[in-house]
Amino acid sequence: MAWSKPPLFALCLLPLALLAWDATRGSLGPDPVAQLEHRSGDWALRLLLATLAVTPLRRLTGVAKLVRYRRMLGLFAFFYVCAHLAIYLLIDLGGYWTQLFDEIAKKPYITAGFAAWLLLIPLAATSTQRMMKRLGRRWQQLHRLVYAVPLLGVLHYAWMVKSGNVIAHRAPLYYGASFAALMLWRVPWARLRGGLRTLRAGTAAATRCPTPAARR
Amino acid sequence: MLIRRPPDIRSSEITAESVYRRRRAVLKALALSPLALAGCGRGAESQAGQAANAGAPLEVARRGAYVVGDPPTDYDAATHYNNYYEFGTAKDDPAKNSGRFRPQPWSVEIAGEAEVTGRFALEDLLRPHPLEERVYRMRCVEAWSMVIPWVGFPLGDLLKRFRPTSKAKYVAFTTVARPDEMPGLAYPVLDWPYREGLRIDEAMHPLTILTVGLFGRTLPNQNGAPLRLVVPWKYGFKGIKSIVRIAFTERQPVTAWNRAAPDEYGFYANVNPAVDHPRWSQATERRITGAGFGLFGNRIATLPFNGYAEQVASLYAGMDLRRYY
Ligand code: HEM
């Protein structure tokens, strides 16, 4: 399986390479800056969802080793978010980069995007084997944060779409649905059903039982 | 409805032979251009689209009276990156999906509080007005901007011919709605048809123009052929396209974006860096120059009234522009 990591690494770099290629050739259309923002943002979100898809895929296929790709995908998602932010700050805002703070404070879609980026920082920082060992159980707890990131990403996307445009612009909806599916898969249905059964059994038993007063 | 001739042309408007000839050329250009190729099948659509995009050259009587210093956006960007939701909501949709639109023949209904009303052929409406080129800044509410050389004439000159009454406090405009030619109408994005409006003093202001072309050529379909409004100190959505109705009204008319999201899009929609859109800042804008230009340094500060404050700020003296955004 180790042989497959370099190709995956290259594959993850491909969208950025194509973006850079298009940018240098001037083939990003009339508003190249928006293209850079949109394409980097799209790949950040796709890679986040791909990261979340690893575990279900592993269970469904029974290929346990798939988990090896999870960290790489997650780190690439972080990498694309950073590229996305850098494009916004350095290329789009440029000399007006301090406007970022104003936007974070005032614009819900930027607040959500920025929060997602912040959440990813501790996850990326603790992604090494060493950190995993050192944090032990707490590592798992910390990395549950990852579920909030695509949610914030979807909100970020949904909130930037212009009113009225919602019907025609379905992409945030598709990302949201993919995220929902990946989360629904994680709900421990069997355990819930089991819990429900014991609960029902419990209430049934309770009604059959005479009240303490009656027993007395 | 009967197509009427506009009110008599006064002697002051009687034109010299040379000017007249030029206008004939203009009308010919208008008639020949966008989709005289009507009736092309689906296969020929993209070709027809291209023919429309090409735009026929226009004779311009006057240039240089209104020019901004910034370099114009290139023709390709100005005609392939814009909003015209009747053809789709993506920036490249209007150019892609407007090939079937037929801006000829065209007539405009003039209605409401005026002495002369009725439906008029476009040629008759345009005839007395010499065309001039005006290079204006165009600031979209989405915080991008362009610099566009329009070809047109002052709206006020046209409105006066219909002798609005004292009750005419506003002017309401309506865009054509043809579901067969405008695929975006299938989506209830806005309450179709698209509508816009101006206060009468805004409509009569010399900076407010009706345009029939850009870059010296007739308007491509995607830019609002054959007749559109340009109000350079307001956000771009006020510049209603493919106008079929102009009505003088006593009350403030309903406008499409205001109706869709009143807290986001006001009736006035004057460019104002101090009043943010609820979801993005209006303090700065990204100037779109065109493909192949640099990626850096395109962001510039947005100016009050889009840089036309000296000419128009007095229209709003004493008004709270935060309230009337
Ligand atoms: C770090 C803070 C962030 C900032 C300042 C930011 C900023 C932006 C901006 C300015 C746009 C373009 C908006 C427009 O054109 O109107 C955008 C689009 C987008 N961003 Fe972000 N973003 C951030 C974080 C994120 C994160 C964490 C994700 C993913 C999880 C993300 C995903 C997207 C997506 C999917 C789009 C739209 C892509 C499209 O239209 O195709 N962004 N972002």
Automatic annotation (TrEMBL), chain B:
Cofactor requirements of the protein: Mo-molybdopterin
Binding positions for Mo-molybdopterin per the UniProt entry: N82, Y85, E86, C140, T175, N223, R228, G239, I240, K241
Domain Oxidoreductase molybdopterin-binding: start-end pairs: 101-257
Catalysed conversion reaction: L-methionyl-[protein] + a quinone + H2O = L-methionyl-(R)-S-oxide-[protein] + a quinol; L-methionyl-[protein] + a quinone + H2O = L-methionyl-(S)-S-oxide-[protein] + a quinol
Keyword annotations: Metal-binding, Molybdenum, Oxidoreductase, Signal
SUPFAM superfamilies tied to this protein: Oxidoreductase molybdopterin-binding domain
Transcription regulation listed as a keyword: no
UniProt GO molecular function: metal ion binding; molybdopterin cofactor binding; oxidoreductase activity, acting on a sulfur group of donors, quinone or similar compound as acceptor
A Pfam cross-reference name: Oxidored_molyb
EC number: 1.8.5.-
Cofactor note: Binds 1 Mo-molybdopterin (Mo-MPT) cofactor per subunit.
Residue ranges of the TM segments: none
Keyword set includes Membrane: no
Protein's GO biological process: protein repair
Subunit structure: Heterodimer of a catalytic subunit (MsrP) and a heme-binding subunit (MsrQ).
Function recorded in the entry: Part of the MsrPQ system that repairs oxidized periplasmic proteins containing methionine sulfoxide residues (Met-O), using respiratory chain electrons. Thus protects these proteins from oxidative-stress damage caused by reactive species of oxygen and chlorine generated by the host defense mechanisms. MsrPQ is essential for the maintenance of envelope integrity under bleach stress, rescuing a wide series of structurally unrelated periplasmic proteins from methionine oxidation.
Family from the record: Belongs to the MsrP family.
Protein name: Protein-methionine-sulfoxide reductase catalytic subunit MsrP
Organism of derivation: Mizugakiibacter sediminis
Taxonomic lineage of the native organism: Bacteria, Pseudomonadati, Pseudomonadota, Gammaproteobacteria, Lysobacterales
